[in-house]
Amino acid sequence: MDPAGLGHPEEKGDIDCTATSTGEQPKPETWDDSKAFYANLSPQKKPKLPKPQNAITIAVSSRALFRMEEEEKIYSEHGVEAYVKYQLDHENEPLLPGAAFPFAKALEAVNTQLRKLYPDSEELFDVVLVTNNHAQVGVRLINTINHYNLFIERFCMTGGNSPIGYLKAYHTNLYLSSDCEKVSEAIEEGIAAATIFSPSTDVKISENQLRVAFDGDAVLFSDESEQIVKAHGLDKFFEHEKAYENKPLAQGPLKGFLEALGKLQKKFYSKGLRLECPIRTYLVTARSAASSGARALKTLRSWGLETDEALFLAGAPKGPLLKKIRPHIFFDDQMFHIEGAKEMGTIAAHVPYGVAQKHRRAAQVKQAQNSK
């Protein structure tokens, strides 16, 4: 039993999400060499692909899934043709894992356990690679996916155009990208989305249990309470929350994703595996339990949802608690919480939603004007 009560598996079940380079692989010189090379890269067994309307679809950009700093530098300094040529010249060299890589691996681990319990069910995670790369770059991405034995069969490569318009066609439940503008575009289209960041320090993450941590206001819930804080301060916020304790908050941009996770959790619960469930969710909020926590919990209850753990920090930093949880991803609408999480080794994802973003953009504009 974990002494902190966080329900973590043994340390031996953890993997280092900051994988090191696998080294450059020799390119095939003959047709026979080529067949052997690609045979080694290809997954040996591919499970059945679920229909998009039945799956929980996670759309991930190539720069979120893999590290592409060198490639992006070539693109920004030398243009698209040099970028494409570089990718073609290096297409047999797998890219290194990026911020979303451990999350994708954890999704596959859950799928493996779901298939054992429900062999014919299509209620599974389905990862789609969504990128504005040109199709010529696709071979390197495919080779990299096969190198790590990832089960990603759906690709959307838009050749320089924004991929956001395709997300609804893929029945996307969550979109992760390293491009904050595309994420904001997705949020405006009503799609759950976040900009994902790599941690500043190395971290080990469970390979057996998917852990997802959510902030409350402007993430799971609407920004109604955030607006009170910004307009009238904390005292008015506490008064408002007490007065409306029994009135559920409106839903936020990631409520649907928590709902999807809960749906899969219940499939394990129905088999008597609540304590062994490979999905664990956390509410990590700056709210204080006594003065404003009840409304958050009652809101989740009114939706028929729950989180496995609820951590009310009363304004204390989130990073130290997240370091203990070690989630595969932590969602928050405030960049200072994202930065604090990153510093403590947490893979964090910024949700650009609500009144806090207006204040953030206004501050950025003011800073830019002052710097002129």
What does this structure look like?
- By secondary structure, the protein is α/β, with parallel strands linked by helices.
- Helices cover 41% and strands 16% of the residues.
- It is built from 14 helices and 14 strands.
- It has helices spanning 31-41, 62-65, 69-78, 80-89, 101-117, 138-147, 180-188, 224-232, 234-243, 255-269, 289-302, 319-325, 335-343, 355-370, and strands at 14-16, 56-60, 66-67, 96-97, 125-131, 154-157, 172-177, 193-197, 204-206, 210-214, 279-285, 309-312, 329-332, 348-350.
- The strands form three sheets. Strands 6-5-2-7-8-14-13-10-11-12 form a ten-stranded mixed β-sheet. A two-stranded antiparallel sheet has the order 1-9. Strands 3-4 form a two-stranded antiparallel ribbon.
- Helix 6 (138-147) links the parallel strand 5 (125-131) and strand 6.
- Helix 3 (69-78) packs antiparallel against helix 4 and helix 12 crosses helix 13 (335-343).
- It is globular, with a radius of gyration of 21 Å.
